Amino acid sequence: MTNELSGRAAIVTGGASGIGAATARLLAARGAAVLVVDRDAAAADALCRDIADAGGRTQQYLADLTDTGAANGAVAAALDAFGRLDILINNAGIGARGPSHELGDTEWRRVLALNLDSVFYMARAALRPMLAQEGGAIVNIASIFGHVGIAERAAYSASKAGVVNLTRALALEYGRRGIRVNAVCPGVIRTPLIAHNEPRQLAALADLHPLGRLGEAGEVAQAIAFLASDAASFVTGSSLMVDGGYTAA
């Protein structure tokens, strides 16, 4: 494993499981100090111990990112622990399923608050130290459903489409100041978010992808790490599909 991120500090939200955990592990393995932001104290602690045991530098920060003050707290914690902030991975998110005419105000706001609002709050807080350092990379985790529609996922689809265009807007605003902003748009990935599905449902989901299978969290993490690294130094404002060909049709 290379040390291409040595000397850099990163925040990964929703970092204790799934794509977030795979990304935190990979960034740490490549030399970055990583602040794992999550609501699950036990999972975050276990992940940080694993990263530390493997020789990585990490710390956890417990927060509910739907709280507008949590973003400032997370960035302050990273600066206090590591002295700088170079990379922000906005991964925290939730889903909601059901007919749109039955979708209540509370559920709609719950999904938008975490999936979209918190992405802006975290980016806003992270941009301040990145501007002072004259550089940084933000990677927002959107979704294929930010580009194509899906029935009975109105709140999720709307939130992820918002993340895609927020990414473009921030990239245009801060590119000349040395800050790159990109999005990764996964297909259906084998994470705890889909663990409730029965085997036949998972098989049907896999069949929607031309590669004929579900994605793995580690595969998405590789794409995230690329966009966070200097290897993507001329990439900004993009939405990288990591979807097994789902959106090619």
Provide a short characterization of the protein structure.
The chain has 249 residues and is an alpha/beta fold. The protein has helices spanning 18-29, 41-53, 70-82, 105-133, 154-174, 199-207, 217-228, and strands spanning 9-13, 33-38, 58-62, 87-90, 136-141, 179-186, 189-190, 215-216, 239-242.
Question: Any key phrases for this structure?
Answer:
7-stranded parallel sheet, two-stranded parallel sheet, alpha/beta, 249 residues
Structure, explained:
The longest helix is centred in the middle third of the chain and has 29 residues, at 105-133. Helix 6 links the parallel strand 7 and strand 8. Helix 3 runs parallel beside helix 4. The strands form two sheets. A seven-stranded parallel β-sheet has the order 3-2-1-4-5-6-9, sandwiched between helices. Helix content is 44%, strand content 17%. It has 249 residues and is α/β, with parallel strands linked by helices. The radius of gyration is 17 Å and the shape is globular. It contains seven helices and nine strands; from the N terminus they run E-H-E-H-E-H-E-H-E-H-E-E-H-E-H-E.
Mean pLDDT over the residues: 96
Overall helicity:
40-55%
- Structure classification: alpha/beta
Main sheet?
7 strands, parallel
Please give the oligomerization state of what you see.
single chain
